[in-house]
Queue: 3 jobs
Job 1
Amino acid sequence: MAALLVVKNTVTHSAIIAINSETVNKLNAYAAFTNALPDAVIGAALEYIFTADKEFQTYLHSNTDVPQLLAIRKPRGSVVTRRKKKQA
C-alpha cells in the first residue's frame, strides 16, 4: 500500500542569530498567519530570497569558496536514526 503522504527528510542545523524586536514581532505574526513554526517561516523566506535574487544567483555560481560566517551549533548527545521498513 502506498503512503498517503510523501515525507521529505531534511537535515537541519541550529544557529543563534540576533534580530531586532520589530522583526521578531513580524516573524511571530507571519508564523501565526500561516499556521507554521517561526523556523519554517525563516527557512521559506530565505529560500525565496535565494531564488528570486538574480545577482545572488550569479554570485553563487561564480564564488565556490564562500566563507562560513554563520556558526552552526553541534547537536548534543547522540543522533538516533530509524531504519526504513521493508515493503511487502
Note: Residues 23-62 form one domain.
Job 2
Amino acid sequence: MIKTLTFAVMHFCVAFTVAYTLTGDLLVGGLVAIVEPAINTVAFYFHEMAWNMKEKMKDQIRAVGAASVNGWVAVQSEGAGR
C-alpha cells in the first residue's frame, strides 16, 4: 500500500505541473492534479492485485505441471522393471 501512496504523490505533482503548464490556471491545474491521480491510483491498486493474482496462478499451473510430469516419470519407472 505504501508503494501505491508514494505513486499517488508523484502522480499528483506531475499532473499538476502538466495541467498548470498547459493552462496557466492554478484552479484547473489543481483540479486535474486531484481528480486524475486519484482515479489512476485506485486503478493502479487494482492492477497490482490482478497482476499478483496472475503470477500466483502461473506458479500454481507450473506446480501442477511439474507434479504431473513427476507422476508420469514414476509410473514409467515402475513399468520398466517388469
Note: The longest helix spans residues 26-80.
Job 3
Amino acid sequence: MEAHAIQPKPTERSYPKEEAVISLESNSSKFSLSTLHPSRQRGLFSMLALAIALVLASATVPANAQGGAFNTQQLGDALTSYGKNTVTDNGQTEYTVRCEKGQWKSSVTISLSPNGKVIWMDIEPAQMPDRTTAAALTSILKKNLELGPMFFSLDGHRLRLSYPVPNSDMSEAKVKAFLTAVISAAVDTMPLWDQRTLGGN
C-alpha cells in the first residue's frame, strides 16, 4: 500500500531541536526515558544519531548548493496541493503536511535551514514508551546507516525521522518526490518503531 499525504493539522516543533537523554539502568536490559536531563548532556542514542546525521548530511550538500535553490515562498508553493499548514515563529516559517497509512497518522514538517542550503523534512512516527529496550534502539541506530541521508533521532519523548535535502536545482516535482520518500521510509520502518517492538513486548 502507498502512504498518501492528507489535509494538515497544526503541529508544534522546537527550533533548534531539543534532544532527550537516555540513561541505562544498571540492573535492567531496558533504557529509561522517564527523566530528561538538560539538552547539553546528550545521551548515547542522540549523540550517535547526530554524529551519523552530520556525516551523511554533509556528504549530500554540494558546495554550490545555492544554484536553483528555493526560498521559503517557493517551498510553500510547491506544497500547496497537499493542503499545507503554515506556521511562522520568530521569523522561522515551517510547513506541515499530514500523512497516514491504515491506523497510523502523523505529520511531516518542512522548512529551510537558516542559511537556506538545506530543506529539512521531519516526521515523528511514534511516541517513545517510558521503558525502551536496548535492542530496539540499537536496531534503529543500525537502520540510520541504511537510510542515509535520512536518520532517526530523539526529540523529547518522540522518535523523529529527518531528511536533510540539498536545496539546489530544486523544483516542485523534486519537493514532492522527497516528501514521498520520507513518508515511505517512515512506513517501511514501522516494524522498528512499533510500540510493542520498542517496549520489548
Note: Strands lie at 4-6, 23-24, 30-32, 85-89, 92-101, 104-112, 118-127, 131-133, 151-155, 158-166.
